[in-house]
């Protein structure tokens, strides 16, 4: 069976658009339509309902899609094995990643990745919403979470360390809290809904402290900047606040009461698929870039 036609069908099914799939695969819409029609004739089944705006799967198309995906993934893995990894990955690589993390630690290094793999075209969606990898047609996602969903294959990228921070000017005006209970007397800055701060306690226990936000913003970089401006105490990921901690514009708070974090940075792809070469090289690049101890944590004054 023609793997190019299968790839076209899968991309159309994921994007619900013949023109969008054609653009991803370097085809004209007319050529894509002709290939799809030829595939349907060979199969003796109509795979898609077509309108001027979108293409949706028929009942036969929904039944055929997972088989087409498995055939493509197996073929890609087989080519990579036979080629000893020398064949350059190519095509569109659709990536989902959290906004702040992508801006700080993925986008700045994409030039190096794209120079290494010139036939790959990254298509990066940055959003703090958890996207559906299958419905969104994503090849891979970067997430920070306590992973429990077995429908994904996950590779650990880096720890996601958290620390309380404030500016020296804020602490000079309001004093240093000495225990988590002292936070009631301070302005606490909260990222999104993360207003339950959990601290390590004696004998492996943990103490949870729910704070009342003086300011709540749904963006980690904005909360970091608010803390740097002296507006209060914030719970931050070290990957977000490392430069400010090194520069001294933010300093650690409650050092004797470290935060508990079960989160880790992961690269995920659906467990129903083989690891395609283009996904493998992207994940390998991230692992090599971050290292066993991520560069943002090296020499951090916390």
Comma- or semicolon-separated keywords:
10 helices, single chain, 14 strands, five-stranded mixed sheet, 38% helix, 302 residues
Cα-based radius of gyration, to the nearest Å: 24 Å
Low-confidence stretches: none
Shape: elongated
β content, as a range?
15-25%
Strand order of the largest sheet: 4-3-5-14-6
Query: How are helices and strands ordered from N to C?
Result: HHHEEHEHHEEEEHEEEEHEHEEH
Structure description:
- With 302 residues, the chain is of the alpha/beta class.
- It is built from ten helices and 14 strands.
- The protein has a five-stranded mixed beta sheet, with helices on one face.
- The longest helix has 24 residues.
- It is elongated, with a radius of gyration of 24 Å.
- The mean pLDDT is 87.
Q: What would a concise description of this structure say?
A:
38% of the residues lie in helices and 24% in strands. The protein is α/β, with parallel strands linked by helices. A hairpin with a 5-residue loop joins strand 9 and strand 10 (206-210).
């Amino acid at each position: 069976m023609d793997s190019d036609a299968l790839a076209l069908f899968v991309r159309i099914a994921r994007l619900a658009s013949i023109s969008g799939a054609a653009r991803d695969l370097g085809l004209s819409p007319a050529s894509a339509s002709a290939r799809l029609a030829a595939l349907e004739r060979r199969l003796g089944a109509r795979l898609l309902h077509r309108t001027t705006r979108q293409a949706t799967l028929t009942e036969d198309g929904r039944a055929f899609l997972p088989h087409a995906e498995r055939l493509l993934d197996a073929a890609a893995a087989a080519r990579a094995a036979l080629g000893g990894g020398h064949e350059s990955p190519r095509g569109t690589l659709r990536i989902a990643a959290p906004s702040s993390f992508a801006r700080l630690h993925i986008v700045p290094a994409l030039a190096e990745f794209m120079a290494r793999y010139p036939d790959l075209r990254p298509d990066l969606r940055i959003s703090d919403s958890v996207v559906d990898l299958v419905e969104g047609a994503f090849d891979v996602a970067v997430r920070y979470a306590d992973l429990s969903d077995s429908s994904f294959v996950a590779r650990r990228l880096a720890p996601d360390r958290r620390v309380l921070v404030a500016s020296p000017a804020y602490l000079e005006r309001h004093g240093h809290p000495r225990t988590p209970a002292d936070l009631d007397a301070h302005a606490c800055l909260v990222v999104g809904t993360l207003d339950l701060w959990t601290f390590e306690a004696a004998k492996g226990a943990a103490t949870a402290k729910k704070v009342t936000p003086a300011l709540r913003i749904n963006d980690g970089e904005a909360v970091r900047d608010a803390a740097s401006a002296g507006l209060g105490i914030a719970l931050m990921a070290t990957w977000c606040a490392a430069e400010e901690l090194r520069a001294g514009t933010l300093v650690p708070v409650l050092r004797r009461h470290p935060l508990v974090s079960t989160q880790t940075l992961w690269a995920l792809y659906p467990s129903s698929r083989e690891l395609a070469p283009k996904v493998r090289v992207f994940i390998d690049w991230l692992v090599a870039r971050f290292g066993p101890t991520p560069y943002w944590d090296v020499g951090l004054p916390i």
